[in-house]
From TrEMBL:
Region (Disordered): 146-178
Phylogenetic placement of the source organism: Eukaryota, Metazoa, Chordata, Craniata, Vertebrata
InterPro entries, per the entry: 6hp_glycosidase-like_sf, Glyco_hydro_47, Glycosyl_Hydrolase_47, Seven-hairpin_glycosidases
Presence of keyword Iron: no
Entry EC number(s): 3.2.1.-
Gene3D superfamilies, sorted: 1.50.10.10
Protein name, UniProt field: alpha-1,2-Mannosidase
Length: 663
């Protein structure tokens, strides 16, 4: 999963009269003099404006057509059966009737406006006679009506779509009692995390387990959207925690509202909320999850209203206004964010029969294919206004990671028919990451092929394979915890790779898994740091203090699970159990689980955050690691970058031609 962006518009409020309690006696009153004066002033201004507009209506003797653009609303349609032609709300007869008809319509409109003004003035006078409580009750009633109308609009029925073949959604019980005991321990950890969130942070996005209260970051905006509930649903389901699952479903049904004035990360909301809701729908069959996912997706679409179609990083769910993170290379969009929408958006088009979601993500792909890439690499930043790359920084960790992951998974999710996605993935792997990893040579800027072959993957002096970051022609010999997902990705993509290189990529995945395990094993707590270096005698160790923390991240365990599925080498379960014990020992507190600030300290301090992805990813991957392969088999399910399983769509191609609703 990509690193959450670390930075977040205040919304507008309609002007309201100050109807404070001091303005009224206890039982009944009129408004204070100053408030009366203000209200009457507003009313008089409104009436003056409207009557001014009335007196300046166009003269029909000078204009053959009077058109406010609201004919269908303001002017009744005339019966066209009497020899006339209807046009734009008007009936066009012979020339002799035109002027007379226009005068009649204008007079009718003047009378209507005059009557409406008189009615509005009478209503305003009546309002001035009412008490504060009566006014507030009326306002609340109107608000409730608006909310109900919006819910009706959002709850329109979706077309019936046949569900894909859903295999292995509630099995995986291991026969080995030792493995079963370990799996049950992980299930108990999930229940501890959920129960404490339920008690202390319910409805909040995340939990502060030590302070025992809700927590949120700017990626979720300023609203309580229950991110942990949505993120944890599928984990609860596959673990058989069905009472807890129903608790989450009930909250979502009654409280999850996307019509809030809140600015959110498009990427994070897509992978956590839409991904989580879609997975919960496929696993449980409960329609509420599908409906909520489609409602939210509609709120994200305005983010794509840019000159290039590359979406903004953030969007206000109410206003639809989007913008980018200020720190992201002169207002650029981030590769891992706009490149990590494909899986969820294809499923949205499949379930709704609406191609808009599919078209949005395919437009991004086509644009990227047309662009020149510096030295064959995809930089992490792209300006959505100009369509130009930002600074030339390439990473398989944060800012870039899940873009490559989704190319591979688009192919897998399409039942291996989306060959375009597979080609883009293979090109990225071969041209960007494959190199001579034993002997390093100097970078020759004029030798393009050599530069591409040796960009990112290296072997350290101590024999550890690592993936560095490319920054403006220079390889930074540092690997992030986020980058550790790539071991699993290489293994997942081995089958189907070009030139019979399946064995090579499976071995590469194993080498990355080994390096990432070393980053855990070389710490005091046996938990991996956020980033670790390979400089001189320092290998797989964090050097900077601000890189020594562990925030319950899943990427290393994710790679262990994929490597276990493809090799069944027992060391991956052993490494996973080591991580489980370390998390339970050092991150568990009475109020849940917390990240730690220094994995090299024997007396670590807590960051006091139970991340939603801990329940969505870390505990899920651990549970799957100690389950049989018939639980969510990889031939039938593809996991999004937040570990939400989505079924393979056995369609003729990714244009959804196999979807009856789409046809």
């Amino acid at each position: 999963m990509s690193a959450p962006a670390l930075l977040p518009l205040a919304g507008r409020r309609l002007p309201a009269l100050n109807l404070g309690a001091s303005s009224f006696p206890h039982h009944r009153a009129t408004l204070r003099l100053s408030e009366k004066f203000i209200l009457l002033l507003i009313l008089s201004a409104f009436i003056t404006l409207c009557f001014g507009a009335f007196f300046f209506l166009p003269d029909s003797s000078k204009h053959k057509r009077f058109d406010l653009g609201l004919e269908d609303v303001l002017i009744p349609h005339v019966d066209t059966s009497k020899g006339g032609k209807h046009l734009g709300g008007f009936l066009i007869h012979g020339q002799g009737h035109d002027e007379h008809r226009h005068r009649e319509e204008e007079e009718r409109l003047r009378n209507k406006i005059r009557a409406d003004h008189e009615k509005a003035l009478e209503e305003a006078k009546e309002k001035l006679k009412k008490s504060r409580d009566e006014i507030q009750a009326e306002i609340q009633t109107e608000k409730n009506k608006v909310v109900q109308e919006m819910k009706k609009k959002d709850s329109k029925p979706l077309p019936p779509v046949p569900l894909p073949n859903l295999i292995g959604i509630n099995s995986g019980e291991p026969a080995d009692p030792d493995i079963r005991e370990k799996r049950n321990k992980i299930k108990e950890m999930m229940k501890h995390a959920w129960d404490n969130y339920r008690q202390y942070g319910w409805g909040h996005n995340e939990l502060k387990p030590i302070a025992r209260k809700g927590h949120s970051t700017n990626i979720f905006g300023n609203s309580q959207m229950g991110a942990t509930i949505v993120d944890a649903l599928d984990t609860l389901y596959i673990m058989g925690l069905h009472d807890e699952f129903r608790e989450g479903q009930e909250w979502i049904d009654k409280n999850l509202d996307f019509s809030v004035n809140s600015e959110v990360s498009v990427f994070e909301v897509n992978i956590r909320f839409i991904g989580g809701l879609l997975a919960a729908y496929y696993l449980s069959g409960q329609e509420v999850f599908k409906i909520k996912a489609v409602q939210l997706a509609g709120k994200l679409l305005p983010a794509f209203n840019t000159p290039t179609g590359i979406p903004w990083a953030m969007v206000n769910l109410k206003s639809g206004v989007g913008r980018n993170w200020g720190w992201a290379s002169a207002g650029s969009s981030i590769l891992a964010e706009f490149g990590t929408l494909h899986m969820e958006f294809v499923h949205l088009s499949y379930l709704t029969g609406d191609p808009v979601y599919y078209n949005k993500v395919m437009h991004i792909r086509k644009l990227l294919q047309k662009m020149d890439r510096p030295n064959g690499l995809y930089p992490n930043y792209l300006n959505p206004r100009t369509g130009r790359w930002g600074q030339h920084h390439t990473s398989v960790g944060g800012l870039g990671d899940s873009f490559y992951e989704y190319l591979l998974k688009a192919w897998l999710m399409s039942d291996k028919t989306d060959t375009e996605a597979r080609k883009m993935y293979d090109d990225a792997i071969e041209n960007t990451w494959t190199q001579q990893r034993i002997v390093e040579e100097f970078y020759h800027p004029n030798d393009k092929d050599q530069a591409i072959e040796k960009h990112l993957i290296r072997k350290s002096n101590g024999g550890l394979t690592f993936i560095g970051e490319w920054k403006n022609g220079h390889l930074e010999r540092k690997m992030g915890h986020l980058t550790c997902f790539a071991g699993g990705m290489f293994a997942l993509g081995a089958d189907g790779s070009r030139d019979d290189k399946a064995g090579h990529y499976l071995q590469l995945g194993a080498e990355i898994a080994h390096t990432c395990h070393e980053s855990y094993d070389r710490t005091t707590l046996k938990l991996g740091p956020e980033a670790f270096k390979f400089d001189g005698g320092v290998e797989a160790v964090a050097v900077r203090q601000n890189e020594k923390y562990y925030i319950l991240r899943p990427e290393v365990i994710e790679t262990y699970w994929y490597m276990w599925r493809f090799t069944h080498d027992p060391k991956y379960r052993q490494w996973g159990w080591e991580a489980t014990q370390a998390i339970d020992k050092y991150c568990r507190v009475s109020g849940g689980f917390s990240g730690v600030k220094d994995v090299y300290s024997s007396s670590p301090t807590y960051d006091d955050v139970q991340q939603s992805f801990f329940l969505a990813e870390t505990l899920k991957y651990l549970y799957l690691l100690f389950s049989n392969d018939d639980l969510l088999p990889l031939d039938n399910w593809v996991f999004n970058t937040e570990a939400h399983p989505l079924p393979v769509l056995h369609l003729a191609n990714t244009t959804l031609s196999g979807n009856p609703a789409y046809r």
